[in-house]
Automatic annotation (TrEMBL), chain A:
Single GO BP term: transmembrane transport
Domain ABC transporter: 5-254
Domain of life per record: Bacteria
Organism: Rhizobium loti
Family matches, as PANTHER family: DIPEPTIDE TRANSPORT ATP-BINDING PROTEIN DPPD, OLIGOPEPTIDE TRANSPORT ATP-BINDING PROTEIN APPD
Membrane topology of the entry: Peripheral membrane protein
Keywords: ATP-binding, Cell membrane, Membrane, Nucleotide-binding, Transport
Location, primary (coarse class): membrane
Cellular compartment(s): Cell inner membrane
Higher taxonomy: Bacteria, Pseudomonadati, Pseudomonadota, Alphaproteobacteria, Hyphomicrobiales
GO MF annotation list: ATP binding; ATP hydrolysis activity
Protein name (Swiss-Prot/TrEMBL): Peptide/nickel transport system ATP-binding protein
Automatic annotation (TrEMBL), chain B:
Organismal lineage: Bacteria, Pseudomonadati, Pseudomonadota, Alphaproteobacteria, Hyphomicrobiales
GO molecular function, one term: ATP binding
Organism: Rhizobium loti
The name this protein goes by in its record: ABC transporter family protein
SMART domains: AAA (SM00382)
Keyword Nucleotide-binding among record annotations: yes
Keywords: ATP-binding, Nucleotide-binding, Transport
Length: 329, 255
């Protein structure tokens, strides 16, 4: 087991009260595996990444949670618990590559910085060579010229490639990619996902892909976890979850996806989009019972009272979902 | 019937780059028209040109048969029948004024009595699923989905016959996105509005638009009726766009 996250709970203190952004979230990622963490805005998926990286805002508090990375255990409730891993054991790709790049330094300087931190003894020439090599590996054209360019001289897709090259150089055990392609075009998105997979294959790291796009997850990930209002509702391999979603929320999310091959019908009423009606529950006061009760289309009386456990779906060992229907058919 | 919007040979350069390079298209009245393409393909520039916010170097734009004139008076007059919904709704709402102030400006422009305008607004808000209290809020107090609805409400309040939506679903969750698109389709039909949807999301354009064009580097690569355009694209670029789309590929379970 390369990476495991156990029972992560995070609170945000807001002027209106305390928001419980995450409640008891656990994840496991094997080495060389791509785990997709899917959720809508407000589900807390970025909070998972920030808690792991130790980048939470000042008003956030980790109330419980341990992370095991490469055999070492970290108590996430402590401030800067994973500081030693940042840049070496863990790397992160943000939605906005400018979050990771300093506008006043050249690409080359920033790539060499990563190497200097990782292996302080190496000489400068070797570092420059490795940095150029990394840019070449992420298929950035003309690496030597890029080394002397500043981030603003590159397009969004090229900047994201530079950030992936940085991750490549730091050889992390865990790579967290938080909506890495949301700001990019579809064709560039496909290229960037290929680079992330290439990086995974090259250094055999575990990848946590945080996204709101089920399409991206089903296309590129090995396993997926579904997050809703701070709770993990389902997890399993992409194939299992796609074939038989264990939680109604997952099924409804799949139904909302518009397939590219869906054709327009002459009858306008046939061209409707599927929606999930209702709103997210108030993160300050968790209602009793199932968190998805109220928006669910198959709920029954017990759903409002009993908080469901994590039940296995079908006979598959790794596929689990938090839905009472699985325990009481 | 005259076309809602017709553009012939639109040319526009920003320095070295050709933002629009000989774009010609016609959008029939009462239809939904899709403009797809990557960032930098000129989709938004084209929209700005149609709204009269951007002068062309060459070429002609006609709206409901009338050539586009660049003057303050013409711009103001045009606002009563062609309305935009900008990509970033928050950017089209002033952070310093309540939504009520924004809506009141519509009344000023239309010279409509305050009470009558608010009565219409009440109906529109209700239809968009916005609580009436939303008009007393500041833009930062509402969610992204709501902000987009407010932008639509403002546009509808002008009683336009043409609505141009630039990336209407960018940044929205799938569940919210569907809701908004259903709403736009309903409004278009009930009010007989010509709807132009600019998007890089090919799947939604395929479903809501009757005709569409694919743009790249300021040129219209290919266009036509969406069914044939997406089923048997003639251009390699259109095929590439379609292939790059990450989709839930496998067949879904039933029930």
């Amino acid at each position: 087991m390369a990476i495991s996250l156990r029972n992560l709970s995070v609170d945000y203190s807001l002027p209106q009260g305390t928001a419980h952004a995450l409640r008891g979230v656990s994840l496991d990622i094997e080495k060389g595996e791509l785990l997709g963490l899917v959720g809508e805005s407000g589900s807390g998926k970025s909070t998972v990444a920030f808690a792991l990286m130790g980048l939470l805002a000042n008003n956030a508090k980790v109330t419980s949670g341990t992370a095991t990375i490469d055999g070492k255990s970290f108590d996430l409730t402590k401030r800067n618990a994973t500081a030693a891993l940042r840049g070496r054991g863990m790397a992160m790709i943000f939605q906005d590559p400018m979050m990771s790049l300093n506008p006043v330094f050249t690409i080359g300087t920033q790539l060499c910085e990563v190497l200097r931190r990782r292996s302080p003894g190496s000489d400068r020439k070797a570092r420059v060579g490795m940095a150029e090599d990394a840019l070449d590996k992420v298929k950035l054209s003309n690496p030597r010229r890029r080394m002397n360019q500043y981030p603003h001289e590159l397009s969004g897709g090229m900047r994201q490639r530079v950030v992936i090259a940085m991750a490549l150089l730091s050889e992390p055990a865990l790579l967290i990619a938080d909506e890495p392609t949301t700001a990019l075009d579809v064709t560039v998105e496909a290229q960037i996902m290929r680079e992330i997979i290439g990086l995974r294959d090259r250094i055999g790291c575990a990848v946590l892909l945080i996204t709101h796009s089920l399409g991206l997850v089903t296309e590129y990930c090995d396993r997926l976890s579904v997050l809703y209002a701070g709770e993990r509702l389902e997890s399993g391999t992409v194939r299992q979850v796609q074939r038989q979603p264990g939680h109604p929320y997952t099924r409804m999310l799949f139904d909302c996806e518009v397939p590219i091959d869906r054709e327009r019908q002459a009858d306008a009423s046939e061209n409707r989009f599927t929606v999930i009606s209702g709103d997210l529950p108030d993160p300050r006061r968790r209602p009793p019972g199932c968190i998805f009760n109220g928006r669910c289309d198959v709920s029954f009386d017990d759903c409002a009272v009993i908080n469901p456990g994590d039940y296995p779906v079908g006979n598959e060992a790794e596929h689990r979902a938090r839905c009472l229907r699985l325990a009481t058919p | 019937m005259t076309d809602a919007i017709s553009i012939s040979n639109a040319q526009l350069r920003f320095g070295e780059t050709a933002a629009l390079d000989g774009v010609s298209l016609a959008i029939p009245q009462g239809t939904c028209f899709g403009i797809v393409g990557e960032s930098g393909s000129g989709k938004t520039t084209l929209m700005r040109a149609v709204l009269g916010l951007q002068k062309l170097d060459q070429g002609e734009i006609r709206i409901l048969g009338n050539p586009l004139v660049h003057s303050r008076a013409a711009l103001k007059q045009r606002a009563s029948f062609i309305q935009p919904i900008f990509q970033d709704p928050a950017a089209s709402l002033s952070p310093r004024s309540r939504i009520r102030t924004l809506m009141n400006e519509v009344g000023t422009v239309l010279r409509e009595p305050h009470a009558a305008m608010h009565e219409r607004l009440r109906v529109i808000l209700n239809r968009l699923g916005l609580p009436p209290g939303v008009i007393d809020k500041y833009p930062h107090e509402i969610s992204g989905g709501q902000a987009r609805r407010v932008a639509i409400a403002r546009a509808l309040l002008m009683k336009p016959s043409i609505l141009i939506a630039d990336e209407p679903t960018a940044g929205l969750d799938v569940s919210v996105q569907g809701d908004l698109l259903n709403l736009l389709q309903d409004i278009r039909r009930s009010d007989n509005i010509t709807l132009v949807v600019i998007s890089h999301n090919l799947a939604i354009v395929r479903l809501i638009a009757e005709n569409a064009v694919v743009m790249r580097a300021g040129k219209v690569v290919e266009g036509g009726e969406v069914g044939s355009l997406f089923k048997s694209p003639r251009e390699a670029y259109t095929r590439e766009l379609l292939a790059a789309w990450p989709g839930v590929t496998q067949s879904k379970p039933t029930g």
